[in-house]
Amino acid sequence: MGSPVSFDYAPAPESRAVISIKPKYGHFIGGKFVAGSKHFPTINPATEEVLSQIALAGKAEVDAAVKAARKAYTTTWSKMSGKERGKYLFRIARILQERAREFAVLETLDNGKPIRESRDVDIPLAAAHFFYHAGWADKLEFAGLGTSTKPHGVAGQIIPWNFPLLMLAWKIAPALAAGNTVVLKPAESTSLTALLFAEVCQQAELPAGVVNIVTGDGSTGALIVNHPGIDKIAFTGSTEVGKIIARAVAPTHKSVTLELGGKAANIIFEDAAIDEAIEGIVNGIFFNQGHVCCAGSRLILQENIAEEVLEKLKKRMSKIRMGDPMDKNTDLGAINSKEQLLKIRELSASGDAEGAQRWTAPCELPAKGFWFAPTIFTGITQSHRIAREEIFGPVLSVLTFRTPQEGIDKANNTPFGLSAGIWSEKGSRIFWASQQLRAGVIWANTFNKFDPTSPFGGYKESGWGREGGRHGLSAYLKGVGHE
Amino acid sequence: MSFYGLVDGSEASLKNYLGSLSGVDQVGADERAAMLATRSIKTTSKRWAIDTAISMVDLTTLEGADTPGKVQALCTKAVRPDPTDSSVPSVGAICVYNDMVAVARKHLDLVGGAHVGVAAVSTAFPSGRASMPVKIQDTRDALDAGASEIDMVIDRGAFLSGDYIGVFNEIVQIRELCGTRAHLKVIFETGELVTYDNVRKASFLAMAAGADFIKTSTGKIAPAATAPVVLVMLEAVRDFYQMTQSRIGVKPAGGIRNTKDAIKQLVLVNEIAGPEWLTPSLFRIGASALLNDLLMQRMKLDDGYYASPAYVTID
Amino acid sequence: MSNRIDVKKTYKLFINGAFPRTESGRTYEIKSAKGVFIANPCLASRKDLKDAVVAARAAQSSWNKASAYNKGQILYRIAEMLEGRRAQFVDEIVLVTGATKSKAEKEVTDSVDRLVWYAGWSDKLSSLSGALNPVAGPYYNFTVPESMGVIAAIAPEVPSLLGLIEAIAPIIVGGNTIVVLASTKAPLSAMSFAEVIATSDVPAGVINILTGKKDEIAPWMASHMDIDGFDISGLAAKSHGAIRIAGAENLKRIYSFKSANPGRILAYLEDKTVWHPIGL
């Protein structure tokens, strides 16, 4: 037994038996599932298997959803006391906990993310968001400076495909707690957990029309954004679409919050706890396949430790287990769509073309589905496209700095400002750097942590407003003194 | 002694060497260990892991009530953990107090266990509070009685008071005493060192001083071999290998009571230090009750149903 | 009747602590409420705006770093200086707007008091708008309001002094720097207020004041990519839509307010949340 051996973990797949996917889905309007007219397929990105047919909402469906939301707002929801509203949210939180396994499996199938993440992060956090906001419903008068206790009315909410149920929770929980009713559109490629959530609303006996879910693509989203019956738009997605929405609602009375892109810097100082920093780098860029708006996609290393860190990082990346998202031992799942895979490939190719050095962790790509192996680019400067544009994939750009100020300057040299990471064992340096960084969320000696009590959102082109905490709630209440 | 060229034996060089180590963030280390604990090991991998874990067990009895009879029974079990199944490997070693070394060695040889080593706890185990001549004599007794492995404790008081050179010199002296006769395992009692920074520092100190193995605990103090402490020590041996091309072993001891715990330890070894460490010559698990749980889980894999303690021996 | 010819003031812009003329050489005529010529203030150009933004950006970091106590004292100092020059401001308001003396006096009084009110906010913002967030894990997590950067503002036509102060004070109290366009019809208050600022320990570039046409300058402000926020309270509602569309290019935070309130300060602050592990 003296020679090295290999410890190959046998496959440990989560069972699919816990869920049943219908061959075809409609919309959830006015408390009922209604048939759609046109449909498009939703697939499992890990296998390209068609999971179901999703309805494409057009004008009629969006009108019906907005009408149902308005009716629920005027006749029921705005008349109900905060105390009673809160109880519905508590119910939803509990049902999400009860059906967590179902949601995790469905999320992983539809999205491609590892079951470990949907099970340990997405679904528990979604339930926690409802639980947290439930308690706000009867305490709006304490919700802080500069806000009233009045909701906007009907909120139109458009969410992305990277954390489908969690983003739904981030949107619906505060909206309902504040007294709004909602029309929500999940992302085109990940509608299934939102439709399962509609069942949860039914089980919770939520009054009809308080939550309406219409599925579709960007055209459905545009119908929501431009609908005159909507008072508030909340969007999470790309900066490009965020700007389109900002322009679309500019001449209207609609209030808007936007959670958009990022190109977060993860700054490693020479005195960092290196092994934990390596974990932070890995978690920062490879969590959820890098499909995270706050992903630490720019590693900014103090030059005197760069070599050591990169060597350790590459070894650590070689341990990343990529493959079947349903396997409990999988660390890196499938890229959510072919379209996204092509974007990642294109931007990575620009790194090659611009003379950066590509290193890819040795791992076998499954034959079917959409995959991209964990990759880092070294020899990157601020001028490389790959250091500036959001890649939204498992690709890390590595830059170096000589002095703390230079590190901060490079970190801030971007139109984005969503998040940043700092690694140092020196307290005063942590506080100095966190003050200097122009980003809404600073993770010091950690990365990619989320909590319903913790406001999340960015500076500059990373969006408008916050989600989570007291600050996030205020986005669903009218401002005091605003025109 | 050369100390791998890392220190020259002076206090200044030791301080400089230990001062160059990066810190350990406790929360980050805890999270990494917790994440690795979610690895799910099934079927053939589980079978392999159980047999590997059995071969890594340092089957231990360290009681005031230990008698030759008790130690002999343990030795028989160490050689053939499951008398009904000869495919079960022997454990790595027997671990006893030094007055039981001769008994253990003799009985092991008698029952066909010449390949199973005898480890003696030493240097005023478990507290390490005695004069150096006493510690040296303690070790010498064990070696003379036939111990092939010495599990020495460090002086935690000296370590916590900053007397790193004192701790270093003790290890160096015991190492010299062991010579080629025995492997040296250095026990930190991580439950008393408390911080992961200290665990990392003690690891590098002991390795430079000549330890063949670094060991978490005596088994007398809780917490003992927690997953994050083992993780920090595995990172240390991995980094030390990078610096010196020498592989130092790791021995968690205390608190590893069932198969699930043992497999988690193997996952840590695999993912942190690497598969090269997945051998009894570089990884041991100090335990007593663990062995029977490993045997029962092994039966379950073979038979497809859960075993009863009645079918494993209580020695 | 005296034969003395009085010395009239040349009204200029206020950029980076100095009083330059507009680089464009353009001016416009303002007359008193009774139709008598008063002055030829500058018609600020796009280049003047650019210069003002450069000055504001350069000043922002150190203004932001100034302690809350220091910022509060500087705002209070502005109030002190204004109080000392009450008569001049009253005269100018009466002259330009034709307001009664008592109405003008009230406006100046309100202006001084409003500055004092905002001065007091500087060291309360973090405790009232910040938070310690009880996250479910071993992390210390807090949210603090931080300055947004360079903010542009359009002051309302009237009240020309109070409206200007209502534009400036809430924006700078939290650490932002500002480029503000004064009342077009009644710019005297603004240009005299610049003299107050110049003698109030306000670092150069923190407050920059332009005069000119709203329809011309507001779109330039909206599309300027180095302006982070825009207060359009002084702009007619009918042009808000177009301004917001132009501002979307860099997702400027654009707001309009009706009254003095702390929300006006918070609108131009960013909430920054910091996480750190709690461990040994």
Question: Which terms summarize this structure?
Answer:
heterotrimer; A: 483 residues; Aldehyde Dehydrogenase, Chain A, domain 1; Aldehyde Dehydrogenase, Chain A, domain 2; 7-stranded mixed β-sheet; 6-stranded mixed β-sheet; C: alpha/beta; 5-stranded parallel β-sheet; 3-stranded antiparallel β-sheet; 43% helix
Q: How would you describe this structure to a colleague?
A:
The complex is a heterotrimer of chains A (483), B (315) and C (280). Helices cover 38% and strands 18% of the residues of chain A. Chain A has helices at 59-77, 82-98, 100-111, 115-134, 164-178, 192-203, 218-225, 239-249, 274-286, 303-317, 338-353, 404-412, 427-436, 469-473; strands at 27-29, 32-34, 38-44, 49-56, 147-151, 154-158, 181-185, 211-213, 232-236, 255-259, 265-268, 298-302, 357-360, 375-378, 395-401, 419-423, 441-444, 463-464, 477-479. In chain A, helix 2 runs antiparallel to helix 5, helix 3 (100-111) crosses helix 4 (115-134) and helix 4 runs parallel beside helix 5. Chain B is of the alpha/beta class. Chain B contains 13 helices and 8 strands. Chain B has helices at 11-19, 26-36, 43-56, 68-79, 101-110, 132-144, 156-160, 164-178, 190-193, 196-209, 227-244, 259-273, 290-303; strands spanning 57-60, 93-96, 117-122, 149-153, 183-187, 213-215, 249-251, 285-287. The mean pLDDT of chain B is 96. Chain C has a single domain (30-277), classed as Aldehyde Dehydrogenase, Chain A, domain 1, CATH 3.40.605.10. Helices cover 43% and strands 16% of the residues of chain C. Chain C has 10 helices and 10 strands. In chain C, helix 6 links the parallel strand 5 and strand 6 (177-181). Chains in contact: A-B, A-C, B-C. The interface between A and B is medium-sized, with 28 and 34 residues. Strand 17 (441-444) of chain A pairs parallel with strand 10 of chain C.
